[in-house]
Write a structure and sequence with these properties.
Blueprint lengths: L21 H12 L6 E5 L29 E5 L24 E2 L20 E2 L12 E2 L6 H11 L2 H9 L13 H14 L4 E2 L2 H6 L13 H15 L8 H6 L1 E9 L5 E8 L2 E4 L12 H9 L2 E3 L5 E3 L4 E3 L1 E9 L3 E7 L1 E4 L4 E4 L9 E3 L25 E4 L37 E12 L4 E8 L6 E5 L2 E4 L3 H7 L4 E8 L2 H4 L10 H22 L1
Parallel strand pairs: 5-6, 9-14
Antiparallel strand pairs: 1-2, 3-4, 7-8, 7-13, 8-18, 10-13, 11-12, 14-23, 15-16, 17-19, 19-20, 19-23, 20-21, 21-22
Helix pairs in contact: 4-11
Length: 534
């Protein structure tokens, strides 16, 4: 602090995530120094000739010239020759503002820093005692390099179908230790996200339930990988409960992996399930990337021809023949996850790389063109269904037909009801329209970077940016679609089905066991809060 507002220059230290916007940095410094925000400048130390940092900028620190994982030295200076205004000693609530420490520590296991791959020193935990953002939503503290976890957790919380199902599940404490129960810790976290008055809350209890030690928080993981691990853990815990098939009901789709002889039409196949669809950004060996998600989806189901040395041995012809190999979507899940494969390997440099090619994605995605694609090149095709328990088989047809089965038993559509396969109601293809509600973004390189998410609230149709502990409104969806077309990493869509969508609006009342959990959390937090304030 080099201003003339105080007789003695003092040194202030803040430990912040690399994702912190510059305007939030100004707020934090104002609070720490006891000045009214907007009445001072922040400039780089020993570079007085440079312009001060833009107080209105929403750009993250790491993109504004700060080095993640290292000390960055700034000067707090007078603004236009006027010294900063000093804030009142007490705030409107009557609490001594100076007692609200901006960070507590040392807590190296729960330290909050940016997701930098070269950070190795301990830090301090950023205090979440501040009031929640004006958006009404609560952020998540970055433990160390857990921004990828935070973006996924916020997306799951903002998914009413997932959140409400989690609330309806009742934990039996007599049967399991709550500390190691992933569903219980997720439910507890969601309750805190919905009821807490804090600006941000910790995720250490959730990661502890994963079985992570402190070093795990310092490792950058992949969002898609974490999502699959978490879903698998939930399925294991929910066996023999009403939620046993929840993940499959919401997220699981089905596709057919087939190989068909081009001489006789004989086809061998197997049915596979998926929780997300991986889409290539740039085809192998190509210099041009796919321009849109729709183009990448078309490439995903485009069959390849097996000929020459790659010919397929046909069981019917009893010889090697040219064949066609590909994938067919049999049905799409209610919640559709698209993973854009932005991380690749450069065989020229033998290094892992990040692809920042522009790939557009729509607000509404029509999936009907991808579930029944005609193949006019083949003279003969098959007509077969899922073989049930074995989930694989072979069959053929000598009739002229399109490349997909027209058998009524083939599961082509969306399974909407919690019923058996025989009772499922198939949606017509014309209704396969999905609406975008979450964009998980990765900024940075393959060596290190930062994850955050832009998510649509289904309660008010407003988009919000969830960037660790910072939650803010997104002014226009158009800016999301344009700005993140070069770094969107995972897209979440929900089927537009008014009858089902309406069932999952915000619940007006918690189940009784959730109310007890809320009360217990409040009783636990009140003495802690009182002690911190005094």
């Amino acid at each position: 602090d080099t201003t003339s507002a105080k007789t003695i220059n003092e040194r202030l230290t803040l430990n912040l995530p690399a994702s912190t916007p510059v305007n939030k940095l100004y707020e934090d410094v104002a609070h720490k120094a006891g000045y009214v925000n907007g009445t001072f400048y922040l400039t780089w130390a020993n570079t007085g000739a440079m312009a001060p940092l833009d107080q209105a900028s929403e750009m993250s620190l790491v993109l504004s010239g700060f080095e993640a994982g290292k000390r960055n030295f700034l000067q707090l200076t007078d603004k236009d020759g006027e010294q900063p205004q000093i804030t009142s000693v007490t705030d409107s609530s009557g609490v001594d503002d100076s007692s609200q420490g901006r960070f507590i520590g040392p807590l190296p296991r729960d330290g909050t820093v940016g997701c930098s791959s070269d950070y190795s020193s301990p830090s301090y935990s950023y205090s979440s005692i501040l009031n929640k953002s004006e958006t009404g939503y609560v952020g998540l503290v970055n433990q160390a390099m857990t921004c990828y976890l935070n973006s996924l957790l916020q997306t799951l919380f903002m998914t009413p179908e997932f959140r409400n199902a989690l609330y309806n599940w009742e934990f039996e404490e007599s049967e399991e230790d709550p500390v190691i129960s992933i569903p219980y810790q997720l439910k507890r976290l969601f309750v805190l996200l919905q009821t807490s008055k804090k600006r941000a809350i910790e995720t250490t209890d959730v990661t502890r339930s994963f079985g992570w030690d402190s070093s795990e928080a310092w490792q950058q993981h992949d969002v898609q990988e974490l999502c699959r691990v978490m879903f698998d853990a939930l399925e294991q815990k929910w066996k023999q409960t009403e939620q046993a098939d929840l993940i499959n009901q919401l997220y699981q789709g089905k596709l057919k992996d087939y190989v068909r002889c081009l001489e006789c039409g004989y086809e061998s196949w197997r049915i596979d399930t998926y929780l997300d669809i991986p889409l290539v950004i740039r085809p192998f060996g190509a210099s041009q990337a796919f321009g849109s998600v729709e183009e990448a989806l078309q490439a995903f189901i485009q069959p390849e021809t097996l000929d020459g040395p790659n010919q397929y041995f046909c069981e019917r012809c009893k010889k090697k023949c040219d064949a066609r190999k590909g994938l067919r979507f049999l049905h799409f899940p209610y919640l559709l996850t698209l993973q854009l494969k932005r991380f690749d390997f450069d065989y020229t440099t033998m290094h892992r790389i990040k692809l920042n090619d522009r790939m557009t994605f729509p607000e509404e995605l029509d999936m009907s063109p991808f579930i029944d694609v005609e193949d006019e090149k083949s003279p003969q095709t098959e007509s077969c269904t899922d073989s049930g328990a074995e989930n694989e088989g072979s069959c053929h047809s000598d009739q002229m037909s399109n490349d997909f089965s027209t058998d009524d038993a083939v599961d082509e559509g969306i399974c909407l009801d919690n019923t058996s396969s025989a009772e499922r109601v198939l949606k017509p293809k014309s209704s396969l329209t999905f609406e975008l509600f979450s964009v998980m973004v990765h900024s940075g390189s393959a060596a290190g970077g930062h994850y955050y998410a832009c998510i649509k609230s289904f309660s008010d149709s407003q988009w919000y940016s969830f960037n660790d502990q910072h939650v803010s409104k997104v002014s226009q969806l158009a800016s999301v679609l344009k700005e993140y077309s070069t770094n969107a990493y995972m897209l979440m869509y929900r089927l537009k089905d008014p009858s089902r969508n309406a069932k999952f609006l915000e619940v007006e009342d918690f189940p009784e066991h959730i109310k007890r959990l809320v009360q217990r959390e409040r009783e636990m937090m009140e003495p802690k809060t009182a002690k911190m304030l005094t």
